Q: What sequence folds into this?
């Protein structure tokens, strides 16, 4: 079965038509040549834009689906309104996500006393938008203490008066939520998938193994079952968040590395080496401008990283490591320098975020062939705090255009931390404006990518990190037919905010349709 798509405005190409057969682009060219071929069906795209399927290089599919079931703490404009809305939540606990002090008219963080006003008879937990801080009510703290018998080990990671739990202490407090079942996990994954297909995302690299209290193998089973049942439409390349050497060794012993379950494939080891700027937990070389006694949290030593990198290298696995602060990045680069030059496998490692990386560090990344998975859309929330946290060092942040010219740099959203919509992320990438206030000046405008480079970073470069660039990332003969049909886009970055995904295809199968074009076609 050959289907021809004509009157297509294929992004970055002079071609206006293509044929799909057996899930792949059979031919891409001019309509007059395409229509000379034997074809079974013609679909007229009426000059709409065709993009290669968007490929988000770092996000949390399970976290996204889980969040969709949570109370939306990002919506209320004040803490008072949040308390009133959250009181209406049903269930044996209230779990909220996405609050940010800048969004509240009170201009302060949520604290324990606010949450005690929501409920005293059941646990109430609220995640800050960065995900690195949880605020808990007294009931949750009491229950967690009952479960554990003691408070978290590291006193710097929690504050009982404020009800704050950061980094490792988050695990301590979320114990009160219990374990999701495999059916729960599958339901959340499918909910997230639906939203992404609507947004034109056809592939993701996703960090899911440590999102919930479920065992990592249960999460793998949930994905594998969905793939087996053909219900997993989106391509998932798992960034295996295994946290410790012993868990990584367990994973390797069980033979999970590089396993392929069809649309679900096992990818690199994922580690988090520091936290976030918002929570003052990103690890900096020099102290925070607004907290001269603090540098943030470093979660692995150089020696520990070295051992982990040696282990992945021996196992033929890549790594994708979270580093927001320049101190965290420096530690990773030092550890890499003693491992990577001797590597036997050709590796495709990446720094996830790389928000503070100065030009010398970017040069070291290039020399070690370490790429980056970056999120320009973070400017949406970070715009307001970068200067406060970093002072003059803000000139050395978000250097994504420089980075992309030096080393493979893929775009991503880290959703549910920020919205998953590729058009919003592309808008920020190409304009450097915060989506929360478009009148504000662009942030380091010279670090904006051209739209062409940005689309490439969202498709081909992501595919490179998933070791699939030979068949994903372009509208090109022989590649898998993963593509998006969009209306309202006129080639300018500004029009990205009005553009709408009308159809999404994976392997030539239409997996989302806002309005069917199929009826416009005729069967020959
Ligand atoms: Zn992440």
A:
């Amino acid at each position: 079965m050959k289907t021809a798509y004509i009157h297509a405005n294929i992004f970055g190409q002079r071609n206006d038509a293509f044929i799909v057969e057996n899930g792949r682009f059979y031919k891409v060219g001019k309509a007059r040549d395409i229509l000379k071929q034997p074809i079974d069906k013609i679909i007229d795209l009426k000059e709409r834009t065709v993009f290669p399927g968007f490929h988000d290089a770092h996000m949390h599919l399970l976290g996204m689906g889980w969040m969709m079931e949570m109370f939306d703490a990002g919506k209320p404009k004040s803490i008072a309104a949040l308390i009133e809305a959250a009181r209406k939540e049903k269930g044996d606990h209230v779990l909220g996500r996405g609050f940010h002090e800048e969004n509240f008219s009170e201009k302060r963080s949520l604290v324990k006393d606010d949450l005690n006003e929501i409920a005293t008879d059941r646990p109430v937990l609220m995640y800050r938008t960065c995900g690195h801080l949880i605020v808990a009510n007294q009931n949750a703290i009491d229950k967690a203490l009952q479960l554990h018998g003691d408070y978290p080990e590291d006193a710097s990671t929690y504050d009982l008066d404020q009800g704050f739990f950061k980094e490792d202490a988050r695990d301590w407090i979320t114990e009160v939520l219990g374990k999701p079942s495999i059916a729960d996990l599958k339901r959340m994954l499918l909910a997230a998938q639906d939203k992404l297909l609507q947004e034109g995302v056809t592939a993701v690299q996703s960090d899911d193994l440590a999102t919930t209290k479920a065992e990592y193998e249960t999460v793998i089973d949930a994905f594998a079952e969905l793939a087996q049942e053909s219900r997993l439409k989106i391509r998932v390349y798992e960034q295996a968040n295994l946290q410790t050497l012993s868990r990584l060794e367990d994973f390797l012993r069980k033979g999970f590395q590089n396993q392929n379950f069809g649309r679900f494939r096992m990818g690199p080891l994922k580690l988090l080496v520091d936290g976030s700027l918002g929570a003052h937990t990103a690890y900096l070389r020099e102290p925070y401008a607004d907290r001269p006694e603090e540098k943030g949290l470093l979660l692995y030593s150089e020696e520990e990283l070295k051992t982990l990198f040696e282990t992945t290298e021996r196992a033929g696995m890549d790594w994708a490591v979270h580093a927001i602060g320049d101190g965290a990045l420096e530690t990773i680069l030092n550890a890499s320098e003693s491992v990577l030059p001797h590597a036997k496998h050709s590796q495709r490692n990446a720094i996830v975020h790389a928000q503070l990386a100065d030009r010398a560090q970017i040069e070291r990344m290039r020399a070690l062939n370490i790429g980056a998975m970056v999120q320009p859309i973070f400017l949406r929330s970070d715009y307001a705090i970068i200067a406060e946290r970093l002072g003059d060092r803000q000139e050395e942040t978000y250097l994504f255009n420089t980075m992309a010219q030096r080393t493979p740099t893929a775009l991503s959203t880290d959703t549910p931390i920020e919205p998953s919509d590729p058009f919003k992320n592309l808008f920020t990438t190409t304009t450097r404006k915060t989506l929360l206030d478009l009148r504000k000046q662009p942030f380091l405008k010279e670090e904006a990518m051209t739209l062409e480079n940005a689309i490439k970073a969202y498709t081909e470069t992501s595919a490179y990190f998933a070791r699939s660039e030979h068949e994903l990332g372009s509208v090109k003969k022989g590649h898998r037919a993963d593509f998006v049909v969009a209306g309202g886009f006129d080639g300018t970055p500004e029009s990205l905010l009005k553009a709408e995904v009308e159809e999404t295809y994976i392997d030539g199968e239409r997996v989302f349709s806002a309005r069917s074009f199929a009826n416009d076609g005729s069967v020959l």
The radius of gyration is 23 Å.
